[in-house]
Amino acid sequence: NWDILEKSLGDACRAAGYEFELLPGEGAFYGPKLEFTLTDAIGRNWQCGTLQVDTNMPERLGTAYVAQDGTKNIPVMLHRATLGSFERFIGILIENYAGRLPLWLAPRQVVVASIVSDANDYVHEVVATLNAAGLRAEADIRNEKINYKVREHSLAKVPAILAVGMKEVEERTVSVRRLGNKQTNVQAIDSAIINLSTEATPPDML
Question: Of 71, 96, 121, at which residue does a domain stop?
């Protein structure tokens, strides 16, 4: 029974196009499992996600299903821990990106910062529009110089900072500055939202 289950896991990996390595003796007493190992930024391997085959628990719980031929059968249970230890997975991500998470993954994706207080209403309007588009955006209308705000949010690893002054208010634009880039790019608000929303879409993990 163990060999059959182990072969089934191997066949599933091959069918999905994944290579795997056999580790004899590493499975739990109740069945074989798949372990997904990630290599961190300095080459260390960490066991994260698992997919565990369990034929023991369904039997202990008295679980059964009726097959096509009318007989009762005990199902096979699959335990899935997609990320494994959540804290470990987050730690690996932060270390891998050196804190500079891609925009789609960053907790705070965009900060809209005012250059002058007269632009505060427009800042809130831009933030509301970004939020409505599904982006995690916040306003910074503190009475501080724009260079101070940009530096502070850059140190906090915010992927995109949109600066707004009276020129941007009049032209309905935003000055986009990306993390690690000293250049700004003036864009119409609609164009900025399209560009940021596209980048904020998580990649296909399948």
Answer: 96
- CA dist., res. 69 & res. 109, Å (int): 55
- Residue 40 CA, distance from chain mean position: 16
> What CA–CA distance (Å, rounded) separates 108 from 137?
6
pLDDT in tens, 66-117: 999 999 999 989 999 999 999 999 999 999 999 999 999 999 999 999 999 9
pTM score: 0.76
> Could you give the angle at the alpha carbon of 164 between the alpha carbons of 161 and 170, nearest 5°?
145
206 lies in a domain? no
* Rounded (10°) CA dihedral 155, 157, 158, 161: 50
Residues 86 and 132 in one domain: no
- CA contacts within 13 A on the Cβ side of 145: 3
- For the CA atoms of 128, 130, 133, 134, the dihedral, rounded to the nearest 10 degrees, stands at -100
Counting the structural domains of the chain, the total is 2
Residue 149 near residue 175, CB atoms below 8 Å:
no
Q: In terms of domains, do 20 and 54 share one?
A: yes
**Per-position b or e across 68-107, b if 16+ CB within 10 A of its CB:** eeeeeeeeebeeeeebbeeeebeebbeeeeeeebebeebe
Q: Which residues, 6+ apart, have CB-to-CB distance to 103 below 8 Å?
A: 109, 159, 160, 196, 199, 200
Q: Is 203 helix (H, G, I), strand (E, B) or coil?
A: coil
